[in-house]
Amino acid sequence: MSDAPESSDKKEEETSIPNPEEDESEDSSDEGEGGASGEAEMDFLRNLFSRTLGLSPGEKVLDELSLEGVARYIQSGKCKNIICMVGAGISTSAGIPDFRSPGTGLYANLQKYNLPYPEAIFQIDYFKKHPEPFFALAKELYPGQFKPTVCHYFIRMLKDKGLLRRCYSQNIDTLERVAGLQGDDLIEAHGTFYTSHCVSFLCRKEYNLDWMKEKIFSDEIPKCDKCNGLVKPDIVFFGENLPARFFTSMKMDFPRCDLLIIMGTSLQVQPFASLVSRVSNSTPRLLINMEKTGQSDALMGMFGFGGGMDFDSEKAYRDVAYLSTCDEGCLALADLLGWKVELEEFVKREHERIDSKDKQDKAKSTNESSGAAEGKAPGVETEKSDKKE
Ligand SMILES: [Zn+2]
Q1: Distance from residue 232's CA to the centre of ligand 1 (Å)
Q2: Ligand 1 center to 201 CA (angstroms)
Q3: How far is CA 122 from each of CA 101, 135, 143, 150, rounded to the nearest angstrom?
Q4: Is 100 within a domain?
């Protein structure tokens, strides 16, 4: 048995995704936005050089490095392209286990699957030969309920108020979609459980979450009904590229961002973490997290990613850390913006709607006593009936 590939140099908190090259992946949602990307790339380089050479120091946009300062900036009307970058921390209050990251005890619990090494369960080559452990784990960790958090609905409010440029998520739990963000609002950098595809390159037939859930809970290995190939949720496995949209949208979005809000991520996973340095050097950056993160570290420096977060030094001029849970942080910001009541009512209303739909679904499934493990048409209806792409 050889060493676990690529595992030795990982950070202890979260694992990194190899192959972040910007080549085409087989992701079908490529928007073909590449036309202006050369220009955006030049903007990025210009920014990087001016920062590195200390040429143009960033402009101080916030009147105060605090949540109040951020709120006043949002209210000033000068801030219309907010990007949210979110990670597992925004879903923990929804009871979603941190599916892929060690630290949840997940990797320690994998012995029963007889893996050659723990990470194999999320490695694409291993999965294609031995899909059983992954689906057994998916069943074990499958969320009982998909109920977005206050934080998810806060992001939705930014969208409704015309302030959200895009939300970049590392999560695969689909809660952004349940909260009402749609395909174009969202970059699921590490993929999603929302859709699945046949792994055969020639086929690539798409399946929805209901179809996949049924397979997972009936302990069936999901097989394509067209070509009998293996069907895999569209989450990014180790050894797979990030979705092409991640790279094309990133180049368009970040140079135009006028406020970056980073929530519930320890900024340990590349290339996601390096996004914070892609905004202009005047763009304010707000971190809502349990601890400070993203400050310049040797690793980021080595790869040429400057622009680590600076909350505390004498030179700090644009970064704000609000240390709390994501829900508390969003409520506090909503309060300062005068949106608190609206947000709380929105959350209550949406949660009631999800609860009543759950009840209906349960009642329906107990009435349908026929098992229904076969012959269901995939790909048409989505689990969240009122969401569409
Ligand atoms: Zn197929």
Answers
A1: 11
A2: 8
A3: 11, 11, 18, 30
A4: no
276: nearest Cα among 285, 268, 288: 285
The active-site residue, picked from 130, 152, 190, 351, is 190
Ligand 1 centroid distance, CA of 200 (Å): 6
Domain of 276, CATH number, reads 3.40.50.1220
Ligand-binding annotation for 91, yes or no, is yes
Residue that is written with structure tokens 């090494």 in the block = 117
100 is an annotated ligand-binding site residue: yes
Domain carrying residue 290: 67-92+148-190+254-341
Residue 224 assigned ligand-binding role: yes
Is residue 152 part of the annotated active site? The answer reads no
Is residue 258 a part of any domain in this protein?
yes
Q: What are the pLDDT digits (tens) for 205-244?
A: 999 999 999 999 999 999 999 999 999 999 999 899 999 9
Instruction: Name residue 122's amino acid.
Output: F
Q: How many domains does the chain have?
A: 1
What would the pLDDT profile of 304-344 be if each residue is shown by its tens digit?
A: 445 689 998 888 999 999 999 999 999 999 999 999 999 99
Question: What global pTM score does this model have?
Answer: 0.78
